[in-house]
Amino acid sequence: MSTAKRSVPFSLSRLGIVAGNTFLEAVRQKLFNFLLLLAVALVASAQLFREFNFGSSELKFIADFGFGAMVFFGSILTIAATAQLFFSEIENRTALTLLAKPIWRTEFIFGKLLGVFAVVGVFCALTTGLLLALIYNRETALIEAHPEAFEAGRLIHYGDLLMMGVLQWLKFGVLAAITLLVASFSNTNLFTVVMGFFMLVICHLQYLARDAYSHVTALPLRLLVQGLGYVFPNFQVFNLADQIGIGQGIDPMVFVRVGGYALTYIAVFGALAVYSFSQREI
Amino acid sequence: MNVAPVPPSLPHAAITITGLTKDFSINLRGVKLRAVDNLTLAVPEGQVFGLLGPNGSGKSTTIKIILGLLEPTVGECQVFGVPSGRVDSRLNVGYLPEAPYFYRYLSGTELVRFYGRICGVPKARLADRVREVIDWVGLSAAAHRRVGTYSKGMLQRIGLAQALVHDPRLIILDEPTAGVDPVGSAEISELILKLKTQGKTVLITSHLLAQIEDICDRVAILDRGKLILEGAVAELVGRQDQQALIVDTLPASELEELRGWLTARGHTLSAVEQPRTRLDQLFLNKISRSPKNGGQA
Predict the structure, then answer these.
(1) pTM
(2) Which terminus of chain B has fewer CB atoms gathered within 10 Å of its CB, N or C?
């Protein structure tokens, strides 16, 4: 097992082991309990909407509220979990023991990213599943109470809601990759979390800057704005709330394009995090 | 005495360090701190090698360079002939860090299995190998407890188990007895000597010089990043021009007679002392605890 010299190729298996351990850390510490608590809170708060009855608008409202809660808590969870799961390795010096093994730093960084992505995936699956169940139950109750309003069948496109859940998960993946990039050169957990939230705000608002400068004629400024538009992902592209549930629905091609957009940014920010981390002296 | 470094071209060197210098930037104006200064050293294969020095002498920085965790500013370091910056240089290295802190949420078995998988121990052998090394370090009884509940001595031993799980040829132990009681410390010494009998190379740093003297074949002493002494322990601490004779207690008259006999032959009786047992040995004898106590350290 230990004599001949041999090279160590990049290994998806090692990456998966790091990801699995990251996920396990999140689950065995408080994060998973936090997830469950949020999910239960969401279900409990949704019961309040049973007091209202304004047909399809109520269902749309529940969907919007549910996804709003998912985006809000999911963003907090993504930034906090990424920073915590990375810095726990650095501050506790477990990274020292791990990186002293035959493992590439690329495997370590992408393993961390995949682990956080899995944690957020569980969160999205839970909240989306609960939301779907909630809306389905409420729609069933409304159909029984007002059959005339549902003569054409159910109003809600449940597949669209599912796609929306997947898109939010991908958006959290981009946010995790950005936070990991910050963590790779940052010295403290707090700085990483604060920067993560700054980046979240910038990515949500960058479309405003692009709109405002769309009429700029000066070429250098226009190029600068366009450049920044590419550097910071536009999180508004994930917001398909107006198209979900009721109405025309989500175009599958739009879903695929937005998915590709997210995966591209995850890969680029992840690669930058690897480069930055490879320069870091542990 | 023996300041000259061991030639880096030693045929069977586990570690070869040549002209190694490491600077750290300590502020934005480019002021640098030299942690290691032109170090040339070779650690022979199959020996226990002590790297000594006061705090801040560059021991940990040297170890981190050997492990590829830091890049040298100047010079080079090879592990079994492979530059230490390459991932494959760590295939045959096991490392126990100073004051180890492991994933608290894993059990001892899970922890060792995790590192075994990272090191590529074949799946078919993994379970047996994990059990074997945990048993070897005497932690079988506590293997299913979470690492977060382990004492310092147990942490050192599980750290040793994770360092050995992939059967490396070189084991690097950074302060393995720091904060460990004399019983735990003696157990670790015993394990290190067992590793030597298995043909492993061990590089150890410790402030317990008595322990180093007992277990090391060679030592190197660093101070402010520079190598100030290197050589075989027996040569460095033994006095070649004197001998000690240990006899039963002699009456004063016979002692005088012996002194006269020696003087007549041109020798000097330098000292007459009562031999002393070492305090750590006395402590261990009085405690009389079994070396392996199932993780109750």
Answers:
(1) 0.86
(2) N
